[in-house]
Amino acid sequence: MESSRRKFLKIAGLSVLGVGAKPVLDSLVQAGEPTYATDQEALEGTHWAMVVDMKKCRDDCRDCITACHRGHNVPEINNAKHEIKWIWNEDFKHAFPTQEHEHLAERLERQPFMVLCNHCDNPPCVRVCPTQATFKRKEDGVVMMDFHRCIGCRFCMAACPYGSRSFNWFNPRNYLDDTNPDFPTRAKGVVEKCNFCAERLAIGKIPLCVEACKEKALVFGDLDDPNSEVRKILRERFSIRRKPGLGTGPNIFYVI
Ligand code: SF4
Ligand code: SF4
């Protein structure tokens, strides 16, 4: 990444990362969005998006999920009702219910699709959150979670049409063998989700999932930059998004 492509965006408040937070009603007294300072190492972008090239994605591979969950201290809870997911696999008919039909290519029927928070242009999760624990960054469109402010009401989970949010029914720290000291662990009673690796963008790094994909199936970039790799792919290839008819404006694009 050229230095001219970087701009300053360092997270100034630890509350954005939710360090050691417990969900308390005191969260409600905080007003306004968390504040940011800038950092010259940060990646420059005003509308982050991701392209997932399903022709490159390997059915048996979980490299992106492993890297994301390790890096973000996502607990491994083997119970579908209680699991915490930042990235996970979904079959075509559940990921793209409005585009499924009986003559779908066998490859698509069989292939697991990696899914995550879509960092929607018009996110219903943000609209319903009573504490602004969920907010959309004006500067780059990332939909963030402030764990300190989350009171666990789960309105956002009901509002998200993609199942992109998980609730910590138990203390997630009891389900972590290895902890990444550079990212906070969460507490029982808060919601969490993918943050587009905001903590890495702030120091000039691409998201962990993108870095971990050996097949180069994941491409991250700025939709506002006509010369970005994501724009180039979207110009040249056919792509679909999850439940586009809902008007949420997902920023994850799948090339099939
Ligand atoms: S995918 Fe769900 S959690 Fe993510 S921004 Fe959209 S509505 Fe919110
Ligand atoms: S559970 Fe969701 S809607 Fe409720 S405070 Fe936490 S982030 Fe906001």
Topology:
Elements: E1 48-53, H1 63-71, E2 87-90, H2 92-95, H3 106-110, E3 113-116, H4 124-128, E4 134-136, E5 143-145, H5 155-159, E6 166-167, E7 191-192, H6 198-201, H7 208-212, E8 218-222, H8 229-236, E9 239-240, E10 252-255
Parallel strand pairs: 1-10
Antiparallel strand pairs: 1-8, 2-3, 4-5, 6-7, 9-10
The side-by-side strand order for the widest beta sheet comes to 8-1-10-9
The ordered string of helix (H) and strand (E) elements is EHEHHEHEEHEEHHEHEE
Helix content range: 10-25%
Specify the structural class: alpha+beta
Number of strand elements: 10
TL;DR?
This protein is α+β, with helices and mostly antiparallel strands and 256 residues long. The chain has helices at 63-71, 92-95, 106-110, 124-128, 155-159, 198-201, 208-212, 229-236, and strands at residues 48-53, 87-90, 113-116, 134-136, 143-145, 166-167, 191-192, 218-222, 239-240, 252-255. Strands 8-1-10-9 form a 4-stranded mixed beta sheet.
Question: Can you describe what's shown?
Answer:
The structure is a single chain. The protein is α+β, with helices and mostly antiparallel strands and 256 residues long. The chain contains 8 helices and 10 strands. The protein has helices spanning 63-71, 92-95, 106-110, 124-128, 155-159, 198-201, 208-212, 229-236; strands at residues 48-53, 87-90, 113-116, 134-136, 143-145, 166-167, 191-192, 218-222, 239-240, 252-255. It has a 4-stranded mixed β-sheet. Strands 2-3 form a two-stranded antiparallel sheet. The protein has a two-stranded antiparallel sheet with strand order 4-5. The radius of gyration is 18 Å and the shape is globular. The chain starts with 47 loop residues before the first strand and ends with a strand. The chain binds iron/sulfur cluster (2 copies). One iron/sulfur cluster (SF4) binds at residues 117-120, 123-125, 143, 160, 162, 164-165, 193, 248. Residues 117-120, 123-125, 143, 160, 162, 164-165, 193, 248 line the site of one iron/sulfur cluster (SF4).
